[in-house]
Amino acid sequence: SEALGATRPRISVVGTGYLGATHAAAMAEMGFDVMGVDSDPAKVAALSEGIVPFFEPGLPELIRTHVASGRLHFTTDIVEATAFADVHFICVGTPQARGSNAANLSYVEEATRSVARNLTHDGIIVGKSTVPVGTGARLRSIVAGIVPAGISTELIWNPEFLREGKAVDDTLTPDRIVLGGTTALSEAVMREVYAAPIAIGTPVILCDLPTAELVKVSANAFLATKISFINAIAEVCEAAGADVGVLADALGHDIRIGRQFLNAGLGFGGGCLPKDIRALIHRAGELGATKAASLLQQVDEINMSQRQLVINMAIEACGGSVLNRRIGVLGAAFKPLTDDVRDSPALNVAAALHLRGAQVVIYDPEASSTAQRMFPTLTYADSVEEAATNSDVILVLTEWEEFNSIDAAALREIVALPVIIDARNCLDAAHWRAAGWRFTGLGVAPVA
Ligand code: NAD
Fold it and tell me: How far does the centroid of ligand 1 lie from the alpha carbon of residue 117, in Å?
């Protein structure tokens, strides 16, 4: 085969979950020949037929297009994928370890090892997963020990900033491209890989490995801090009779602050923010960096306390106990436009109320089946109306757009009690109150 850098690189993507499937499809869209590899045969079988085994807007179309064009293949065979490609993206999971704040790095380590030991020609291993600072350096020494004789490889870090629900656009037109630990050769190859976004002006940040790892982790830490900040202010608003929504709008006009991630409510969840700030708490602690650890500990605690706050509001709305009360829950996904229920605040609240003896009925436009897999004992409905029928209280726990078009007057006819808690501050309170509902948001003084 040709020398690395002499011909258009071929791409492998190891791990085809939310990140990897999107990245693989986007690379094919940019004109590369791509092989996605995953250890889960069901995932590979589905993707090979152009079926995306999770909900991500625009992704099924992109996968189908490029499976059909022949530029995108999926396999369970890491040996085949490694032999095929020149640039190997590591996109496997880095979940929170059991019983610890630390990240579980076993998947990243195993994926990197299996690429390195199966290299058949020179190539670049590109870490994309979110990892604690120092991981890349450790992986480099592992790779150096197992790469076959006569083959040269580099390991660099290129963290990913995509948002679920907007993953396709975020991957095709990223805000920035961070490349950590490159040489002249790997920089040139990566500039070719990202030629399309670079051509439209996407900034490229070249840095060392630890900086690249930390850019990603601190971006998530900052976003999490913003959410916990507004939730802390929301508590003051509620106590003082102020309105946190109006306050956030006013704050947001300051471009140093910005309006995004300033919605008071049930707080953040998902497969990234919670585990990423915990991993940073852990890693910063190991490094003796106590300030980041203590700041983010507070961020995590404030965030988790929002879930308890909403549970308590539901109990209070039911007169002190939810036992045998019927609770309609709107939303299961950790945020709208995804079916991801990893560490979902919505499901966490629903499950807690179920454990306290409530009859909880959940409706989510996309996440019912993923939620059902995680919490099979909860009850799932196919519509807002079904979830609301005979309810003593309705909880809005994910801010899906379709909840804004609920006819409050019509819904009032089918509930037992017209009581609603908008834990995402996403509904029009005046509309609901005018239809006779007792409506409560977070961070606003309750209306008697
Ligand atoms: P995911 O669980 O959806 O996907 C991980 C995939 O890797 C799974 O399909 C799993 O089967 C596969 N896998 C595990 N070990 C493997 C191995 N040795 N060989 C081949 N496949 C293997 O996780 P995700 O949400 O895609 O996240 C992946 C990484 O990307 C994490 O580090 C995450 O923090 C980071 N990230 C995620 C997002 C996001 O929005 N989901 C955004 C940016 C960064």
Answer: 21
Sign of the dihedral defined by the CA atoms of residues 179, 183, 186, 192, in that order: positive
CA 231 to ligand 1 center in whole angstroms:
29
Please report the pLDDT score of residue 209 as a whole number. 98
Backbone angles phi, psi at 36, to 5 degrees: -90, 135
* Distance (Å, whole) CA 292 – CA 270: 21
Establish whether 272 is a catalytic residue.
yes
DSSP 8-state symbol, 173: S
Q: What is the CATH number of domain 223-440?
A: 3.40.50.720
Q: Which ipTM value was assigned to this complex?
A: 0.99
CA distance 300 to 303: 5
Say how far apart CA 330 and CA 346 lie, in whole Å.
9
| Pair of tokens at residue 157 | 């870090």
Strands 72-75 and 87-90: unpaired
Tell me, in angstroms, the distance from the centre of ligand 1 to residue 91's CA. 5
Ligand 1 neighbourhood includes 94 CB (under 6 angstroms): yes
- Residue 436: exposure state from Cβ atoms within 10 A (0-12, 13-18, ≥19): exposed
Residue 343 Cβ inside 6 Å of ligand 1? The answer reads: no
Nearest atom (ligand 1) to Cα of 19? 26
Does 263 show up as a binding residue in the annotation? yes
Confidence at residue 390, expressed as pLDDT on a 0 to 100 scale: 98
The 10 Å CB-count burial string (b at 16+, else e) for 166-190 is ebbebbbebeebbbbbbeeebeebb
Overall average pLDDT of the 230-256 stretch: 96
Closest residue by Cα to atom 8, ligand 1, is 17
Task: List all residues 6 or more positions away from 344 whose beta carbon is below 8 Å from its beta carbon.
Answer: 269, 270, 332, 333, 334, 367, 371, 398
Look at residues 342, 345, 399 and name the one whose alpha carbon lies nearest to residue 18: 342
CB 38 less than 6 A from any atom of ligand 1: yes
Q: Residue 444 pLDDT more than 90?
A: no
DSSP state of 266: S
What are the boundaries of each domain within the chain?
A: 11-206, 223-440
Q: Which fold has domain 11-206?
A: Rossmann fold (3.40.50)
- Say if 11-206 and 223-440 have the same CATH topology: yes
Q: What is the pTM of this model?
A: 0.96
325 labeled binding residue:
no
How far is residue 60's CA from residue 63's CA, in Å, rounded to a whole number?
Answer: 5
**Percentage helix, strand, coil, to 5, in the chain?**
45, 15, 40
